[in-house]
Amino acid sequence: MKPPLFLYLRPDSLEEALAAMHEHGDEARPLAGGQSLVPMLNFRLARPEVLVDLSRVEELVGTSCPGPSAISFGAMTPQRAAERLEKVRSTCPLVSMMLPFVGHVQNRARGTIGGSIAHADPAAELPALCLALGGTVVARNAEGERRLRADGFFGGPFTTALMPDELLTSVELPGVRREDVAFAEIARRQGDFAMAGVVAVRETAQTAVRLVAFGVGGTPVRLPRAEKILEGQELTPACIAEAASAAAGEVDPIEDLHADGRTRRALVDALVRRVLGELGSEGAR
Amino acid sequence: MSTAQAVSHFAISCEVNGTTVDRVVAVRQLLADFIREDLGLTGTHLGCEHGVCGACTVVLDGEAVRSCLALAVQADGRSITTIEGLSGDGLTSMQQAFRRAHALQCGFCTPGFIATLSVADPSDYHDEAGVRQLISGNLCRCTGYENIVAAVCEEWGIERS
Q1: Cα A238 to Cα A219: distance, rounded to the nearest angstrom
Q2: Which residues of A touch B33 (CB under 8 A)?
Q3: A112, A223, B104, B117: which has the fewest Cβ within 10 Å?
Q4: Which H or E run contains A148?
């Protein structure tokens, strides 16, 4: 229950951090807030030769608005700091709604926005949020920058499209109004990983809804069959019920000691009803 | 461009309970072990060592954090307050509320609860549900939380539901 031996680097700038990742590549792991990586070190599930501590790379901390209706988080922005920002609440309320469910307050004090997305835990809120909003992940290595769409970024449990020498530097999310987003999850205890969660985002045309489930598979997943049912439809109880049942049918849930597959399907059904019900009542005029 | 040499030990300087501490630490050492073993501040307890139980909670730069999920080397240049620094010579008023309400039995988890509560802003909490959410990151296996919630509600003037 103590970390294995490793060597440590603490770059002071992004350039130094990228040089370290370039030099050590496969053997190196970047350390963000450490709320997932340090437990993995303690359990000896991760055994990097070199740990590149990003906590002093100031360029990676901060929140900006690249457009009138978009928000960009530096990868090392602490979750707790983002949770407190009025700018986040007003530009992209879904972020403020979901952050309080990321671990406990003590985890969010150190845990970062980029760290959670790069870690890609299938039951984590932030990857699902990123996918539901159709966000963009910005990655850099010593050669240059890549912009990666959230669709396709998550390849499997704890697996992303990042290359070994790349660092996730920022995440850009479109601002979507409060009345066009809904989120619900079910966990044994506040702050635990969800047994299942669902995020719904109404697209600007108001005729389509993006639906994402998490905690039920290897990655957060879109629910295309349910989305298809909702296309161009009003969110009537009958339509919501049909979409919920399609969603429960199209997920391929994992089974663990918290819930078996059948339970998780039932949770997805219930959660889709809940989020669409909320969207429906918000959308009614 | 050449990078700095990766190291196995690191000289750190931090402030612990108001006193400057200079030490050379192994980079793999957890902050919790540094506090307990190198500084002898054994009021910080280690339960699970993977961030679940909250017994090791300390205050780092004004935020409650899990000291088993930070490396000692990361405390360099930072300020830490442990339960010894929080209570000083006597019990804080929250600790006294814990005592009055019988909010502890074995006491193993208590320093973590007190650390979490010490940096929370009471004006953010208006009801029992909010208090329960705040302390959800600290496990107690003796009390069933009832008396802990009662102590916090009493101290913060929150009416229990």
Answers
A1: 29
A2: 2
A3: B104
A4: strand A145-149
Q: Which residues pair with A170 in a beta bridge?
A: A74, A138
Whether residue A105 lies within 8 A of chain B, CB to CB, comes out as yes
Q: Is A83 in the B-facing interface, judged by CB distances under 8 Å?
A: no
CA nearest A160: which of A135, A137, A177, A142? Answer: A137
Touching A: B residues 102-141, CB under 8 Å: 116, 132-134, 136-137
- pLDDT tens string, chain A, 285 residues long: the values are 899 999 999 999 999 999 999 999 899 999 999 999 999 999 999 999 999 999 999 999 999 988 878 999 999 999 999 999 999 999 999 999 999 999 999 999 999 999 999 999 999 999 999 999 999 999 999 999 999 999 999 999 999 999 999 999 999 999 999 999 999 999 988 888 899 999 999 987 667 999 999 999 999 999 999 999 999 999 999 999 999 999 999 999 989 888 999 999 999 999 999 999 999 886 554
Nearest CA in chain A to B113: A106
Q: What is the mean pLDDT of residues B92-118?
A: 97
* Gap from A108 CA to chain B (nearest CA, Å): 9
Q: Which of A6, A16, A42 is opposite residue B3, by nearest beta carbon?
A: A16
User: Tokens 């998490």 sit at which residue?
Assistant: A214
Q: Any idea where the domains of chain B sit in the sequence?
A: 9-86, 88-156
Is some CB atom of chain B closer than 8 A to the CB atom of A187? Answer: no
Query: Which contacts of B157-161 are long-range, i.e. CB under 8 A and separated by 24 or more positions?
Result: B157/B122, B158/B125, B158/B126, B158/B127, B158/B128, B158/B131, B159/B127, B160/B128, B161/B127, B161/B128, B161/B129
Q: DSSP per residue over A15-72, as a string?
A: HHHHHHHHHHGGGEEEESS-TTHHHHHHTTS---SEEEE-TT-GGG--EE-SSTTEEE
* Residue A107 touches chain B, beta carbons under 8 Å: yes
Q: How far is A4 from chain B (nearest CA, A)?
A: 7
The ipTM (two decimal places) reads 0.94
Alpha carbon A139 to chain centroid distance?
Answer: 16
User: What kind of architecture, by CATH, is found in domain B9-86?
Assistant: Roll (3.10)
Q: Hey, are the CB atoms on A109 and B136 less than 8 Å from each other?
A: no
C-beta separation of A114 from A74 below 8 A: yes
Which one is the CATH code of B88-156: 3.40.50.720, 1.10.10.10, 3.40.50.150, 1.10.150.120? Answer: 1.10.150.120
Q: What mean pLDDT is predicted for residues B7-16?
A: 98
